[in-house]
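Before drawing any conclusions, I looked closely at one protein, both as residues and as discrete backbone shape codes, quoted below without any editing:
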Amino acid sequence: MRLLRLLKNDLAQETAEWVKDDIISESQAEVICQRYGADYHQRNNRSLGYNVLVALGYLFIGLSVITLLGANWEQIPRGVRMSGLIALTMCTQLVAVKKYTSGKTSAATGIFLLGNLFYGASIILIAQIYHLGEHMPDGVFWWALGCLLIAVTTRSPWIMLQTLLLALIWFFTEVDLGFYPIAFPLFLVGSLWVLMRGSSSLLLFFLTVVSFVFYAEYSLAKFWSVDRYYFFGHENAVVSISFFILMYAFSHWLHQRNSVAAKDYASLLSVWSLRFGLLLMLVLSFEWPWEELIKTYWDHKQSMLLLVAFFLTAALGLAVLTQKIQMVLVAVIGFLIPLFAVITIDDPSLATYLQVMSNLALIIWGGWLILKGIQLGISHYFFLGLCAILITALIRYIALIGDYIGGAVLFLAFAGLLLGAAKYWKKTQFKEAKA
């Protein structure tokens, strides 16, 4: 039922059909929708398609006005330009404030988004008037900061999404010039505030996690740099892996909260953590990544191991707290063994053994996900495990491990695993039908 939480905007419409067909009563439909955070009567929210159309409509209004101003920019007197830009921004935002205070939050959000576009255009055009362009990212920063104040005040996920996207533009332009965006955590804190105090938004939650990963990785790269430019090495990848193990453990803790939004966020975090794990294991199923890791001279080994120890200890702590120790413990041990091997053993032949171990781990992990998906009724576990086995089989068909005999044995193992899973599924269904 976790996938159902990600599709809850369609749940109210579906339950309405069930009520219409006399499958369930209206009160039962309300209880079902309440369980998954959906609004059966559709009074408190509108469809995603409606919100996207309104947002795009306001976007094109803003682009139209900005294009019109840009086309006649040189013909407009400087004083009129300055006062016109300020008046346009203030009037738009005041209309949005009036809508918001009167309880029309959806309309106010759209107008706030439009006003933020005018605010950004005003910063850019006023900087052009007075030739203020010594450090270009500063303009984007002040644009994002102004949007942040509105997003935090209104607790609107849509305005916070706009803010975080602008903050990411500022972030990447800043680091591209060799500077460190020290104020970026301010936007992450604002995003967390909106997620906790405003209405739930899976898109904002996902973007916040991604933004945090970028900020953490670039912070490490800056800490490990020897000059003004950022250092990215294998240490960054190792820390990222340990962080995603922590995120998977955190998703279990989040899922046990009473909040419906927390359960939604937990489902999303769990899904993408497992997908990241699948992608990583597929990369490590080849020999060349292990060869590169073995040849690497670990310049920042101590600080890297300190961070890895912190993340993995926190992950194990959350796993014990949520009584979900098995999967997290296997991930931690499976990660630490090859890490210890590539750091301490300088032997190129080790890459082949680690490759074989990675393929076996991928098969076992895929089989475990399939069985857990059947046992717990979690569809994304089942399909992710199935993808892991099928993709591994395809890769090994293209590049066999060792020789044809090894490939044939591996394919037989795949067949046995899938047939065993099918038998287990049939047995489980028979028990459920008998009960």
